[in-house]
Amino acid sequence: MDMDAWEILKQAGELERRGQEFALATVVWRQGPSSSQQGARAIITAEGELHGWIGGACAEPTVIREAQQVIAQSTPRLLLLGSPDQFGAAIPEGITVVPISCQSEGALEVYIEPVVPAPHLVIVGRSPMAHTLADLARALNWRTDLVAGEDFTAAAAHEGSMVIVATQGHGDEEAVEQAVAARPAYLGLVGSRRRGTAVLGYLADRGLPADQLDRVHVPAGLDLGHTTHQEIAVAILAELVQLRASGALAGTAGAASARKTPAALARNTAPPAPAGRVESAEAVDPVCGMTVAATAASHPLVHDGVTYYFCCTGCRRKFELDPAAYVTRETRC
Which domain holds residue 292? Predict the structure, then answer.
């Protein structure tokens, strides 16, 4: 493995530490000539940012688009990129073939896997309930930090974290104030409603914004009535699992996938738009059928009032020589 590939893995580790979802793409096979190499890796975020090198102008937009679908569906995918006549009928089951037309006439096989970091839970306090909650969360393989109230600061959490303040009267106000500053995806205070009203009222008097204080769950956890400290821990964990599964905790790992409705997933996997039409900043090369970004970098050409985009100058040149061969009846409408 070369140093560039190691750097990509280091970046992946940092994204995982921050609780960010992404996809890792690896070139497992190549047919020359190709600008990529076997073993090359790249990170693709849900927003479509690519870090690393997976191939040239033909492969990159395709890999980004497929990676975003992998992230949304949390399902890995093996891609075979190239001209269909390069492979014939001998394509193993389970491989997604994406036709691309590049002047290099190379081909790539790329494995794209989703990386969903474990949820990050910060428990503030040292009570028996806090220890029980930490043990339960770790049994789910959540990244769990148990921090004493006097040691807790906003730096211990981030926007994707879930924070439970269980100081139980020992510096509740200070702990909640620090937790609010971290703007976590979930912030819960263990205590009665009366105690919670007092704590939040004190912080409001100190000038903390009402919209941030309104996000504090008091009491934390599902309402099970009068229970033991073990059952309180179960109730808190159950609420967090429920909220994550429903996609209500924006920013936590897995929340984006949970919020995807069947209709949204169908849009992600829908066939490409007709040639020449631009939808969501994407277009289809009318010559080779490859989906490309509808930007100035994709060699735009206006024909009969319609702007067409191409994966390479070779496809653009073919279109210029004989537009009628590539303009379908639908694109003329």
Answer: 282-332
pLDDT at residue 319 tops 80: yes
User: Sorting pLDDT into bands at 50, 70 and 90, what band is 332?
Assistant: very low
- Does the model's pTM come out above 0.90? no
Place of tokens 């394509």: 91
Structural domain contains residue 261: no
The pair of three-digit structure tokens given for residue 303, joined into one six-digit string = 């024909």
Residue that is last in its domain, among 115, 138, 167 = 115
Domain count of the fold of the chain: 3
Instruction: Write out pLDDT tens, residues 265-285.
Output: 333 333 333 443 333 478 888
Comparing 218 with 60, the larger pLDDT belongs to: 218
